Amino acid sequence: MHTRLTRLLGIQHPIVLPGMTYIAVPRLVAAVCNAGGMGILASGGLTPQACREAIREVRRLTDRPFGVGCSLLLPGAAECARVALEEQVPVINVSMGKGEWVMEGARQYGGQVIATISNEAHARSAIGAGVDGLIVTGHEAAAHGGAVSSMVLVPIVRQMCAQQGRDLPIIAAGGFADGRGLVAALALGADAVAMGTRFASSIESPVHERTKQMIVSKQAEETIYSPNFDSYPCRVMHTPGGRRYTRRRLSPPVAITRALKAAREMQRPLGALGRDVLRLGPLEAVKVAYFGAATLAMRKAIHEGNLDEGVQLIGQSQGLVHDVASVEQIVQRVLAEADEVRAQLQRL
Ligand SMILES: Cc1cc2nc3c(=O)[nH]c(=O)nc-3n(C[C@H](O)[C@H](O)[C@H](O)COP(=O)(O)O)c2cc1C
Predict the structure, then answer these.
(1) Domain range for residue 293?
(2) Residue 329 forms part of a structural domain
(3) Nearest alpha carbon, ligand 1 atom 18
(4) Are residues 182 and 264 in the same domain?
(5) Whose CA is nearest to atom 7 of ligand 1?
(6) Half-sphere exposure (CA, 13 Å, Cβ side) for 154?
(7) Is 52 inside a domain boundary?
(8) Quick one: pLDDT at residue 32?
(9) Is the CB of 197 under 6 A from ligand 1?
(10) What's the gap in Å between 141 CA and the centre of ligand 1?
(11) For the segment 238-288, what is each residue's pLDDT rounded down to a tens digit?
(12) What is the pLDDT of residues 309-334, one digit of tens each?
């Protein structure tokens, strides 16, 4: 199956692992690349040195193209993007911020920059800025899908690309976990799917076994989409921890205290934190503190399988996940199902 994305990146299949913090680690990224898709390493939670080591680890495990995800607003992300440029990573996936300087850097060595967007305004601005591709994230998605579903947002962004004269590859994210979803995404104008929830529940994923089994057992409607988890509406699994955390927003002092604890654990020096506050301004810095505070609950769910105190980011597509399978099995299944669906459609 060849699309704008497979041609741009030289990959076999239009299937992408998105950059999920603490989950898209070198082993999982390389497994997706080796299965013919493209894995995006998450830089969230990594020091620049750890990010460099992770990039090199991916290269030890695969010789295929891969990406690094950088949420530019967050502390440490710009440093990780600089490391990714120095390491000449084939794809840099930027979100939450202006990525012009990343594009300039990537152009020097023929790298591609893909922007993640979840609404029309951000899509328009990313296309105008000259990105090489887009991840379009619908409402169904784990974490920060926007207000509009993939079903509607993907064709809108495809049309927007045509109107702006840019034939960009689009990766549809949010609600895709099988071959039916892949064919549907292609029909909507996308060139690939990003599957977060599906790959988070693969054998190679570092998610705790208890949490993986919980993903398998949950139905599509058992998620909570709440503005109280961090600073933007965020989709998490409906669990005791998820319910408690999203019932009301943390007070700013509690969020700041927890964010400082997370920053210490991430070995972010005090000087760098001071520069973050100056760069962001006090209001934006408090917003970012909520992201930092939330990482403590995320790690409890991912690393300890603790869903009473921890919170698991998850998409509605959990309702489509029925087993914990290897990445290779998942990719092959998606492709076989997609072939079957295309044949069925042709018979109509
Ligand atoms: C467990 C998990 C953790 C995630 N963590 C992040 C993250 O740290 N940053 C981010 O931008 N998106 C994150 N996402 C969202 C994905 O990048 C992607 O948009 C989403 O998974 C797509 O929807 P799906 O889960 O239905 O496949 C996460 C998704 C999952 C399932």
Answers:
(1) 219-304
(2) yes
(3) 196
(4) no
(5) 20
(6) 29
(7) yes
(8) 98
(9) yes
(10) 7
(11) 999 999 999 999 999 999 999 888 888 878 887 888 888 888 888 888 888
(12) 999 999 999 999 999 999 999 999 99
Same domain, yes or no, for 223 and 326? no
Report pTM: 0.96
Confidence (pLDDT) at 268: 80
Output the CA 232–ligand 1 centroid distance in Å. 14
Together in a domain, 162 and 99: yes
Question: Tokens 């390493």, residue?
Answer: 41
State whether 109 and 47 are in the same domain.
Answer: yes
In a domain, 330, yes or no: yes
Q: How many domains does the chain have?
A: 2
Ligand 1 centroid–CA 337 distance in Å is 23
Q: What is the domain-level CATH number for residue 79? A: 3.20.20.70
Ligand 1 within 6 A of 223 CB? no
Q: Which of 171, 180, 181 is nearest to 4 (CA)?
A: 171
Residue 214 lies in a domain: no
Per-residue model confidence as pLDDT tens digits over 142-171: 999 999 999 999 999 999 999 999 999 999
Rounded Cα distance, 14 and 284, in Å: 36
